[in-house]
Specification:
Blueprint lengths: L2 H17 L2 H10 L13 H8 L1 H29 L1 H6 L4 H16 L12 H11 L1 H18 L2 H22 L8 H13 L1 H8 L13
Helix pairs in contact: 1-4, 1-6, 2-4, 3-4, 4-6, 4-7, 6-7, 6-10, 7-8, 8-9, 9-10
């Protein structure tokens, strides 16, 4: 096996892992509902929380998080260790190297199992960046909690956190890690997340966005 074939396989597997719609699965199995037909219509943890309660919402959050975390762990730890003989001979450029972790996020956003529709990618991206950029991501989570606690808008918290993460990560790399390469991968993911929140942005501007509630719908 050569490195190109290995990375193609990784990208396909990462996309399929990302495509697993845990919100949809949990809704169907435990609540006998299609999560896409209730609340915001999104398959993510926030809509699961609104429709099914805290337990299901947390389960979806953890499972979507693990999709990103596991793929990042495989790409950055397991594969380089197991295939070091390939990695050393033909090192990949950073963009190609990061493709599998981008594909797991794209899989969540555009699931092959749901007609190439899906979630916003926040939880899966969180899993990726908790592994890849741990401290900047943890700092950004504080920003998320502050925004959500004050406004009760999860979408606004996600958008602000995406911007904040990119800035924090950029400054962290320069000031702490002494790495001066521009974080193109992080910027790509942030822009994708913001793009997926476009309907939420419109609703926020029109004061029609739903606020976070822990009450289960009847």
């Amino acid at each position: 096996m050569n490195l190109t074939l290995l990375w193609i396989i990784l990208c396909v597997c990462a996309y399929l892992i990302g495509s697993i719609p845990f919100g949809y699965i949990i809704g169907k199995i435990f609540h006998h509902q299609d999560i896409r037909k209730g609340g915001s219509g999104n398959i993510g943890a926030t809509n699961a929380l609104r429709l099914y309660g805290a337990l299901s919402g947390i389960a979806v959050l953890i499972l979507d998080f693990l999709k990103g975390f596991i793929v990042a762990w495989l790409v950055y730890k397991v594969v380089p260790d197991k295939f070091s003989y390939l990695m050393g001979e033909n090192p990949l450029n950073p963009f190609i190297f990061n493709l599998p972790v981008l594909m797991v996020i794209l899989g969540h956003m555009y699931s092959v199992f749901l007609g190439f529709k899906g979630g916003k990618g926040v939880s899966t991206a969180l899993g990726v960046f908790i592994y890849l950029d741990t401290i900047p991501m943890l700092i950004s989570l504080i920003v998320f909690l502050v925004v959500v606690v004050i406004t009760r808008y999860v979408s606004l918290g996600s958008i602000v956190t995406a911007f904040s993460f990119f800035i924090i990560d950029f400054l962290w790399n320069i000031l702490v890690m002494k790495e001066y390469a521009f974080p193109w991968f992080e910027l790509t993911v942030v822009l994708l997340i913001i793009y997926k929140h476009y309907p939420n942005i419109l609703r926020l501007l029109e004061h029609q966005e739903s606020k976070l509630s822990f009450r289960k719908d009847k």
